[in-house]
Amino acid sequence: MTMSLPTPSIAPPDVIRCAYAELVVTDLAASRAFYVDVLGLVVTHEDADTIWLRAFEEYLHHSLVLRRGDVAALGVIAYRVRSAADVDVAEEYYRQLGVPLERRPAGTTRGIGDAVRIVDPLGFPVEFFYDAEHVERFTRRYDVHGAGAISRLDHFNVATPDVPFARSYYEQLGFRVSEDIQDEDETVYAAWMFRKSTVHDVALTGGDGPRLHHIAFATHERSQILHLCDHLGALRESDKIERGPGRHGVSNAFYLYLRDPDGHRVEIYTHDYYTGDPDNPVVTWDVHDNQRRDWWGTPVVPSWYTDASLVLDLDGVPQPVVARSDDRESDVTIGADGFSYTRKGDTDTGFKLGAQV
Amino acid sequence: MTMSLPTPSIAPPDVIRCAYAELVVTDLAASRAFYVDVLGLVVTHEDADTIWLRAFEEYLHHSLVLRRGDVAALGVIAYRVRSAADVDVAEEYYRQLGVPLERRPAGTTRGIGDAVRIVDPLGFPVEFFYDAEHVERFTRRYDVHGAGAISRLDHFNVATPDVPFARSYYEQLGFRVSEDIQDEDETVYAAWMFRKSTVHDVALTGGDGPRLHHIAFATHERSQILHLCDHLGALRESDKIERGPGRHGVSNAFYLYLRDPDGHRVEIYTHDYYTGDPDNPVVTWDVHDNQRRDWWGTPVVPSWYTDASLVLDLDGVPQPVVARSDDRESDVTIGADGFSYTRKGDTDTGFKLGAQV
Amino acid sequence: MTMSLPTPSIAPPDVIRCAYAELVVTDLAASRAFYVDVLGLVVTHEDADTIWLRAFEEYLHHSLVLRRGDVAALGVIAYRVRSAADVDVAEEYYRQLGVPLERRPAGTTRGIGDAVRIVDPLGFPVEFFYDAEHVERFTRRYDVHGAGAISRLDHFNVATPDVPFARSYYEQLGFRVSEDIQDEDETVYAAWMFRKSTVHDVALTGGDGPRLHHIAFATHERSQILHLCDHLGALRESDKIERGPGRHGVSNAFYLYLRDPDGHRVEIYTHDYYTGDPDNPVVTWDVHDNQRRDWWGTPVVPSWYTDASLVLDLDGVPQPVVARSDDRESDVTIGADGFSYTRKGDTDTGFKLGAQV
Amino acid sequence: MTMSLPTPSIAPPDVIRCAYAELVVTDLAASRAFYVDVLGLVVTHEDADTIWLRAFEEYLHHSLVLRRGDVAALGVIAYRVRSAADVDVAEEYYRQLGVPLERRPAGTTRGIGDAVRIVDPLGFPVEFFYDAEHVERFTRRYDVHGAGAISRLDHFNVATPDVPFARSYYEQLGFRVSEDIQDEDETVYAAWMFRKSTVHDVALTGGDGPRLHHIAFATHERSQILHLCDHLGALRESDKIERGPGRHGVSNAFYLYLRDPDGHRVEIYTHDYYTGDPDNPVVTWDVHDNQRRDWWGTPVVPSWYTDASLVLDLDGVPQPVVARSDDRESDVTIGADGFSYTRKGDTDTGFKLGAQV
Q1: How confident is the model at residue D349, as a pLDDT?
Q2: What pLDDT score was predicted for residue D338?
């Protein structure tokens, strides 16, 4: 059974794209070493408690805020809307949805103009803004690009128990689905949804939630992703590499999942495809297809399925986590009761994790 | 003095992106060897006189049509609009502009639905369509991707004498400028304009026109572009490499210009940047900046400035070419009267072509 | 206790490098599909029962022979010596060692001149030859290089129970050690040994033997290795990817392990380093260092430790396999009794496989 | 007519490889900015007048010495020999050749042991040494590898008027030819000669000499070379890029030529091939083949033919430069009297420089 959602009387705000995330971290120096010294993000500003960061091709003030706090959690995910008027639209739209909401004057978040912040129907803290401070775009500043140079924020991935409900909510907000994972009973395990012309601005991952599964940054080439692994090896921090590098089936992107010092998951991502035409074909994957999450059939590590970050409400209190009641992808694909195939119709599993345990 | 343009009473059609080009070629077998065997484009269909081609991530019927003819020329450039209704809008919009126009029923061009074809105010044959046949998207068909795999059509580049006029025309059609090249007297030498969230769908290059300067395809990585050069070398056709590979200043893209067997120019292009936000900063380059066209300061070969393809009117007759009356970029930057600098303020040229002649 | 070896009265033959391997395969068509259609090796010659293959930068007749047979096994590994006279030296050297030996006139193996074939003291069938037929070197034949182009055979890896004995044998033959894996009790788990100026021509892997652990081919760049994975995914044969891609600690090479249709293991390998100076420093790795086999800390799949190919004697009969009596690397590093660290001194394991099971 | 050379009564020293160069530079800070901040070489040691540098995979004290001086010149090129005894052999060998010679006790050059330094019969200052101080090999220090990481010194290239004489001299010293450029009259324009198993340790370029044409460093991948170009562009020093990047015909290497602040030429180089077998085929190129120096047919810039660095004698005085009397490659291939072809037998030139001037 899927929850239902009221339909506001006005059209939703015109969301352009995912724009920034704020992560609460418990050791700001350790986080700085990870995000600045390893990932190479550019520091737009920093003070004793907060660091505002951007990637090399970004000209808004930040795409990531690290804020010192006692409990590691997601502070907010923010979408940019097309105009200042859309912030007003967002306020009215969410008032009608009846969710917790606050209007935030310009500068409430450094570098960000007038904004509306809500708790969305999935339980996530979400901000909508248009105005933001412009800073230097480092696109051509190759003198400061490292071997693992990151171009821009690409997407958010959120863990939520009820994917069809979450999908309906985001469709109502104007997002479209590019790909999803289902089974023969039409249980939906995950969906990828976009506003900008890439595979996603937000992915919905079925699981206990609301929790942040990960944020993702894009690079131009795979060599930059491979360097990040080499770099972490040289620092003797290879245990920060959780999964990958590999090629996703879904999205066709080349990927790497890292865990920051608080365990927040960060994906580095490249090579997805253009989705901007209205009839962009939706790709539906069978949950039993062993190449859906890794095109090379490399097993997904269990922590990738189980771990995610708490998310805060508007008062900064962690949201309670609700367990998924539908089947879990890890249960139906791995181990005694699970099943995956490399070639549809194969009677043995052909699943490589079996060879590992 | 810049020409003026009537303003239609209705909003323009909602153009999504550049979608396909038709090139008239004089030796179809030679063109097939170039576009299929070297560039690796996928043949959707072919008959005795025509080949319909697409790149690996495209699912519409074609992005390039090669049609046999007596005179090598551009047959048409086509933009996709957001809906079938936008084709009607396009018809009305261009009727009010008073340009030559024909409505083309579905199938007039194989694989393309109902369309409007016009001669635009710059003299180019341009089509607008929405409906098109869907075919297999080869995104993940790595078994047929060669070492130089091409992802999708990226943009058109048109030579036109009066860039400010052309820019006004395209702005009225809803395109925005990402970058341009000017001089201290505000002479505009070129402008890059987009609908999809890349640096351009069409570039306007100041020169004798209307002529097609080039069409461009995108790849994921630079190694794919470098392989095309190696491949042409192995075939002893390195003289098909006209310019590059190199890094553009404008667009920051890594590029290569090839000439097909008829001399039509094809660019292979990767690494440009996201432009989809409404306040995307415009980058204006000084025409004397020697890194504007090549970030590494490699001289532009003269043929790149002088050569371009004829374009046909709706009856298939080559359009007369009008000479540019404004200063030419090659004249103001190269040779006795020209001037370029590597570092602004340098009194010597620092320009590398000087060392070559 | 390590076995001892007689010392011949003459100097050993001057081995240049590892040169070719013959694999017995049970389904020649399936093997051809793997080695030719996926790996892209060049067919020098083929008949109903045998295929002779080479990589793009090789000019000797073959570096891999696939021979149809009933039992999948290694037929021979062959080293090239510096001159025809060295073949005579090899014959005398091995007669004094008292191992099974046969002199093979030119052409006994197609494309190979006069040769000596022995069973070496480790139980492996090994050939020494100098003369060989020259064929076209495809270095610059980019028209036939695929996206996963392979340059040359790089090394053999043999499983043998007693690594110190095997190392002594190969040192006597003039090979030097570049890297090895030991523990605090000086148990040796593996050693890498070379004649040409790379990290190895042969690696000695402690395990039940004599068995062939793998053969390895070199590429120029990592992108070629990544394409092989994408290609196998597209063919729905991702289960042929056993381990990797990743970065080795030992050798610093970027690697991928595949399994051919008979389960023979093939490594694709790039980025190792120059070892040709006489004082090239030996790198000794602690068996408990979790980055020794993968610099990114990715767990070694168990099959990589356990599986290997049978090897034939000179009569084509599989050699009996002797169990390793020293500690096994998999036992001392994984699971209940094993221990690995990412940072020396860490008290918890920091070992990522733990998170997977 | 080719000069003749006495034949010493003893075998030559056993040279392993090219090992280091000393360049005299006029502005040490400017040179440091180039070699350390852009190329990323590692500083082993520096004082007020000298900087000792190495690349990431090197463990000897240095492969490049920058020494402050009044006249930009080559101080010395140094080859490493196989043993300390070979230094004595070198001394006797060159005494018999009757060239200027000095024995240099350990430490005369920081980090280098006992050495012999000579002026070779071509007029170049050349050192032979075995002992050298070992320092940390940064192979796996990815935390300090930049995006343009350089692995090791690869070769020297020397300009000399009489290539056949120079070739005879180096063959007598035990070097072998991998490739050369000749014309139909057997005039030799250049030859590539090696001791280690690559295409060359030294290239002989026909021209006025003795002068140093360039020194070359190797990288693992092309992306590292491309980054150096981007980096120089970002610094507005693109005029330090003289030629390339491109693919050589000779050697098949991917290349880039830079000019340091004194005009010393430095090549960055990758992708050549294994030459270590005794019967490695020699590749002879026709001087009129337009793909010999660039596989993509890109014209060689004239400065690459004309410019080179002075070389010092053992007293630090620049050697007089002797003009080449044989035909010059630039004369026979470019311009009014020259001729080059892309396809042998083509009657028009197909030569792209023609389109540029």
Answers
A1: 52
A2: 86
For an interface test with D, which of A34, A143, A228, A229 has the most D Cβ atoms less than 10 Å from its Cβ?
A: A143
* Phi (first) and psi of residue C228, to 5 degrees: -60, -40
Q: Which residues of D touch B302 (CB under 8 A)?
A: 355-357
Mean pLDDT of B65-94: 98
Tens digit of pLDDT for each residue in D72-108? 999 999 999 999 999 999 999 999 999 999 999 999 9
Q: Which pTM does this prediction carry?
A: 0.97
User: In terms of Cα–Cα distance, which of B18, B46, B11, B10 is closest to B31?
Assistant: B46
Q: Give the number of other CB atoms < 10 A from CB of residue B315.
A: 8
Q: Name the residue of chain C whose CA is nearest to A295's CA.
A: C233
Min Cα distance A288 → chain B (Å) is: 18
Nearest-angstrom CA–CA distance, A235 and D141: 8
Q: Which long-range contacts (CB under 8 A, 24 or more apart) does C254-258 make?
A: C254/A226, C254/C222, C254/C225, C255/C225, C256/C225, C256/C228, C256/C229, C257/C214, C257/C304, C258/C228, C258/C232
In chain D, the DSSP E strands lie at 15-25, 42-46, 50-54, 64-68, 73-81, 101-104, 115-119, 125-129, 152-160, 176-182, 188-194, 202-206, 211-218, 241-247, 254-259, 265-270, 283-286
Place B357 in a pLDDT band, splitting at 50, 70 and 90: very low
pLDDT at C215: 98
What distances in angstroms separate CA A304 from CA A158, A206, C12, one per listed residue?
13, 12, 54
* Exposure string over C45-63, b if 16+ CB within 10 A, otherwise e: eeeeebbbbbbbbbbbbbb
Q: Complex ipTM above 0.90?
A: yes
User: Looking at the complex, does the CB of residue C238 fall below 8 Å from at least one CB of chain B?
Assistant: no
Domain borders along chain A are 15-331
Q: Could you report the per-residue pLDDT of C7-41, keeping only the tens digit for each?
A: 999 999 999 999 999 999 999 999 999 999 999 99
Smallest Cα–Cα separation from D194: which of D122, D271, D280, D128? D280
Task: Enter the CATH code of domain D15-331.
Answer: 3.10.180.10
Q: Within an 8 Å CB–CB cutoff, is residue D95 touching chain A?
A: no
**Could you tell me the two tokens for C70?**
């009933």
Asked if the Cβ–Cβ distance from D230 to B295 is below 8 Å, we say yes
Confidence of residue B347 (pLDDT cuts 50, 70, 90): low
Q: Are C253 and C247 in contact (CB under 8 A)?
A: yes
Q: Which of A152, A221, A278 sits opposite B83 (nearest CB)?
A: A278
DSSP letter assigned to residue D121: T
| Test the B interface: residue of D238, D301, D343 with most B CBs within 10 Å | D238
**How confident is residue A288, by pLDDT bands cut at 50, 70 and 90?**
very high
Residues of B in contact with A140 (CB under 8 A): 249, 252, 295
Task: List beta partners, residue A266.
Answer: A215, A258
In this structure, what DSSP letter does residue B60 have?
A: B
Q: A63: which DSSP letter?
A: S
